Amino acid sequence: SCSRTPLQDNTVLSRITLFNEHVKQHQQWQRINPFSHYSVKDMPKRCFLKEQYGTAPPGSLSEQRALQAQVISLQEILQLCELINEKCTASDGTEVSLPFGQLFELYNHISDKLLGTLLCARRHKYVDFEGETLFQGRDDAKHVRLLRPFEELRAEIADKIESIRCLTTERPVEHPELHDN
After folding, report:
1. End-to-end CA distance of the chain
2. Total-model pTM
């Protein structure tokens, strides 16, 4: 009395297959989820490649937030380099630099995290300064200098920002119910 067409069977089969796939993904997540076990020793040991250790899973919201933070950091570095270039005291015409005290006063109106931005910019080899770190008052006379011409730095930083933004659009968030918020 109940007659089904092959199209209806395919739709039901595809839904069953989709549901079973979702169940398998959920079981996989529960195996690696540290909060789903009563004891840590019940949890299977996860394996990572060296370059994956300490990074967010691809496609997760954590990865998206990390990429957004990288863009913000690079924008702040660009703003810092631009400020040094605009307000520089070039004594011999080749070195573009600014005393830390003057930079601190100018940058304080923009952001309260100058030292972190300076350290990050030095790690990326955009700026350099004498010593391990700089302190307001003590190191006001030390110069922070750009390591390359500003236009070159601007182009490089803009390329990095664009490549990160391309990554965020290439990788949609997979299974939001399984990832952190």
Report:
1. 49
2. 0.67
